[in-house]
C-alpha cells in the first residue's frame, strides 16, 4: 500500500544567514516560511548557532530560546513541522563552537565531563522549551558533528568509538528527558560510512536514535569520477539509504535523507532541476524512507563573505525568495509522488569491520559493485558480510539473493551470483 513520505527543506534564512539569531526579525522569518510553504513542503530543519545560545557553559540565553520557540510557532501557522539541530556546530564550511571549549579553554567535545554536562543541559533545555508544540518533530544532536572527531578537520577532538557511543547515548537521553516521545536522532556526514578511522561508526548511525539520517553530497568524489548524469551520481542518495540498512538491527528502521543538494559547478545550474528529479525519484524507490529534506531553502546572500562558491547557490529559492527551477522540481515531487516501492531482494555484502569502510566509498569495490548492479536493473540493497548467511535476517528484510563485490565486478574470478 502507498504510504506517506515527508518532503521538507533545511531552512537557511534569507536575511543574515544563520547569523539572523543576532538580529532576530520575526517578520523576515515569516516571509521566508511563507515562501517555503508555498512550495507545498511539510517540514523544515532549523539551526540555532550554539555559541549564540550558550555563550557560557552556565548561561543558556532565555531570549534566544524564546526566539526559537517563536520561529517554531510561526512555522506551525504555515503548516510546517520543525526539527531542531542543537550543537551547531558546523555549517557550510564554518565551525561554530563556544569559547568555553576552545583555545585557552580547550576541552574535548566528546569526553570532557564539564563539556558533556554543558551540552546535555543545553539539548535538554531546547527540547523542553518545545516539548508541548505539536509541530515540533524532535531534536537532531547537531549538524555533522562527526567532522570534529577526526581528519581532515584541522584541529579534531579525538575520541574512540566507545567514547562516541557513550556521548551519543548521553546526548539522546538528554533530548528525551526534555521532550519525551519525540523523534530524536543524530546525523553525520558521509565519512561515517566511508572513512576507515572515523570514530562515529555505521553501527551507531543505524542503531542510535529514532531513525537513521544520511547526508548525500556528490562532491565527495562521486560526480568528479563519474560525471553529473552518471548512475552513481544520480543514485548516490539511494545508495546511502540502502547502505545504512546493512547495520540496522530493525529490518524496517526508517531512514531520513536529511540533506541532499545540487552543488555547482559539478551540478551546473541548468542541470540542477534534472538532478533533483532523478535523485528524488531514485530515493523514492527505497523502502522504509521517512522523508527527503533538501539543502537548502534560500541562497546565501552575496553580501556575506568567505563562503565556498557553491554555498551561495544551493537554495531552492533566491535570496529575495523567488523559486528556481529546482524548487519547482521538488515541489512537483512532493505533490505528485506515489510511494510504494517494491522490496529490494538482491543484497550486496559489505564489510562489517569499520576499518574497511573505504571499500564502500567512491573508488571502492563495494561502491562500484552496487552501481554495476544498479545499472543492470537489480535494485540492490546491502547486508553485512557477517549476516549474509543468516536466513532469519535475510527473510525479515525480504532478501532472496546475496552477492559479493567480487562476483559482480569479476564474475569469471569470483564465481556466479547465487
TrEMBL record:
SUPFAM superfamilies: (Trans)glycosidases
Superkingdom of source: Bacteria
Keyword field: Hydrolase
Gene Ontology terms, MF aspect: hydrolase activity
Name under which the protein is recorded: Glycosyl hydrolase
